[in-house]
Amino acid sequence: MVTANFPWLTTIILFPIVASLAIPFLPDKDGKTVRWYSLIVGLLDFLLIVYTFYTQYDFSNPEMQLVERYAWIPQIDLNWSVGVDGLSMPLVILTGFITTLAILAAWPVTFKPRLFYFLMLAMYGGQIAVFAVQDLLLFFLAWELELVPVYFLLAIWGGKKRLYAATKFILYTAGGSLFILVAALAMAFYGDTPSFDMQTLAHRGFPVNFQLWIYAAFLIAYAVKLPIIPLHTWLPDAHGEATAPVHMLLAGILLKMGGYALIRMNAEMLPAAHAIVAPALVILGVVNIIYAALTSFAQRNLKRKIAYSSISHMGFVLIGIASFTDLGLSGAVLQMVSHGLIGASLFFLVGATYDRTHTLMLDEMGGVGKQMPRIFSMFTACSLASLALPGMSGFVAELMVFVGFATSDAYSMTFRVIVVALAAIGVILTPIYLLSMLREIFYGPENKELTSHENLIDAEPREVFIIASLLVPIIGIGFYPKMLTQIYDSKTLQLTARLRDEVPTLADRKGTNAIALSDSKAAITPAVSAPSIR
């Protein structure tokens, strides 16, 4: 009875934020106490997430669970409303896992450690809040507050062009956030009873034209965060100047906020508009995959190469969201989790390599695998995961998206063939540029100028532990994807059924099949009418 009434999600969100407020008062001179304190706080919050998941979460229930609702500012109908379902629970777990490892990755930070770890813990709670809040105005506040720590982490601890990268990041993301606020206010005050509750708004039944305008506003905001080309240019600059732990948060969590919000608000709350705009999402997904893969292929800066690779992989999320199939949507969610793990591992290794070589230019590397065999092995394993090697999570996620879209009856056969063929180009380019990257860094003759000036020591136990912790779920999901998909299967089934009802041909086909099933003398044959989305 006590555990059933306990505010689990509120505690998970507020614990790292409240704990961060104690950092300025900790007795510490060299930063050791602060970093151990932050790691313990991060680990305790992650363990609380895992405990809550195993004891309080029901796989078979597609509705909101662990719901908590408290009046905050009644005058503007702002409520502290949180809850999780199959869409948000995997990302809450991912956030706790990646952020805890990012705190461990920040071990070498010696410049202003109190402020650094304060921002890391504050960001911890803010990221979880984005996935858990169920009040649209509260979602906007969480989305905005989460940007502040990232800005300072880039502006203070970044590279030579850190101020430019941080300013570009905040302008893009804060500018996109304004569209969230405008859309939220329009939805809340449409009708007789104002409400910011997401579940209430999801069932309000807005007119199609109104939905299209709101959908467009949300899409702009989430296109920046996902990111969708052409609103992507902040990401390579941010990654180009960030430190390893900030890399892990950007690639592992922040990009997933855009994908999550696109499903939660654009698809679930505006299904009629989604049925109309879905083909455009598919096209944008294909553009992301091919353009970013080609651009990554041409990059000579290691961080920017991996950054464009991340943009390319997020294109599969767009295709899965717009597939109108259970398998495609499930693959999109799996791709977000998979890319979070793989992206965090690759960017951490990029940071570890830079700490030793003090260069990011591939032309200045070569043959360092002989002196750093452990880093070479870990980099190879994570790159193989990124290129979707069978047995890794990336392969399962991309395969589900491909098959889900290819078998979708919401699109014409011609459109499906073209999309699958074009997306396959990105799949072919990925191993080419990743294997070429490995060759230029680790293979071939040693760069004597590099090896004579830099101490190319191999990976230390802390670094091996971080990569091993990321590879375990990457390989585990690759061999047994059900360990993750069972968390959200009931939710994706429910959401896909609702989205298909918004496509006239699919809805008619559903009704035709129901009549056929009720007639015991009739043969059960699927309808074969032409798809409605062209």
Automatic annotation (TrEMBL):
Question: What's the catalysed reaction?
Answer: a plastoquinone + NADH + (n+1) H(+)(in) = a plastoquinol + NAD(+) + n H(+)(out); a plastoquinone + NADPH + (n+1) H(+)(in) = a plastoquinol + NADP(+) + n H(+)(out)
**UniProt entry keywords in alphabetical sequence:** Membrane, NAD, NADP, Plastoquinone, Quinone, Thylakoid, Translocase, Transmembrane, Transmembrane helix
Keyword Transmembrane appears in the UniProt entry:
yes
Residue ranges annotated as transmembrane are: 6-27, 34-54, 87-108, 115-133, 139-157, 169-190, 210-232, 244-263, 275-294, 306-324, 336-354, 375-397, 417-438, 464-481
Pfam families recorded for this chain?
Proton_antipo_M
Gene Ontology annotations for the cellular component aspect, listed alphabetically: endomembrane system; plasma membrane-derived thylakoid membrane
What GO biological process terms are annotated to this protein in UniProt?
ATP synthesis coupled electron transport; electron transport coupled proton transport
In short, the EC number is: 7.1.1.-
What does the UniProt record say this protein does?
A: NDH-1 shuttles electrons from NAD(P)H, via FMN and iron-sulfur (Fe-S) centers, to quinones in the respiratory chain. The immediate electron acceptor for the enzyme in this species is believed to be plastoquinone. Couples the redox reaction to proton translocation (for every two electrons transferred, four hydrogen ions are translocated across the cytoplasmic membrane), and thus conserves the redox energy in a proton gradient.
> What is this protein's record name?
NAD(P)H-quinone oxidoreductase chain 4
Q: Which organism is it from?
A: Leptolyngbya boryana NIES-2135
Q: What is the lineage of its organism?
A: Bacteria, Bacillati, Cyanobacteriota, Cyanophyceae, Leptolyngbyales
Question: Which gene codes for it?
Answer: ndhD
